[in-house]
């Protein structure tokens, strides 16, 4: 397959993940990049086709909107997620990608395969939807304008 996963950061499970990847003989499908400053992330994302966000199955995570999701949408990235709650709702509402439940490996695999079948035009639409949702819901100026209207400013 021509899929490559680019993993940025140095999370506490990174070494376990690297070991699992080696044991499964799929090292050629993964590229690890050490932790980067936040201003470098858009440049790295521009070289990717899809962004991934995942959470463990925890009620706290279902009630929050991760900054990572907002950053991905600001970059106009199609999104694959393993999440519930607000993240799941936003991805469906924005039509910016696919979301499976945390721990649902089969669902995640199905979603990855579905995205590989999409045409360039369909992927561009996911990108546009992602960016549009960001602009309408997370952009600081847009949010301040909404607050001004709400408070009669």
How is this structure best described in words?
The protein is α/β, with parallel strands linked by helices and 153 residues long. Helix content is 51%, strand content 13%. The chain has a 3-stranded parallel β-sheet, sandwiched between helices. β1 (5-8), α1 (14-23) and β2 form a beta-alpha-beta unit. α4 crosses α7. It starts with a strand and ends with a helix.
How would you classify the helix and strand content by structural class?
alpha/beta
Oligomer: single chain
- What is the strand tally? 5
How much β-strand is present in the residues? 5-15%
Mean pLDDT over the full residue set: 90
Shape: globular
| Low-pLDDT residue intervals, each spanning 5 or more residues | none
Trace the largest sheet across and list its strands.
Answer: 3-4-5
Can you write the helix and strand succession as a string? EHEHEHHEHEHHH
Largest sheet, described in full?
3 strands, parallel
Roughly what percent helix?
A: 40-55%
Q: Rg to the nearest angstrom?
A: 17 Å
Number of helices: 8
Ends distance: 55 Å
Structure at a glance:
It contains eight helices and five strands; from the N terminus they run E-H-E-H-E-H-H-E-H-E-H-H-H.
Topology at a glance:
Elements: E1 5-8, H1 14-23, E2 30-33, H2 41-45, E3 51-54, H3 59-62, H4 67-74, E4 79-82, H5 85-94, E5 97-100, H6 105-116, H7 120-137, H8 140-150
Parallel strand pairs: 1-2, 3-4, 4-5
Helix pairs in contact: 4-7
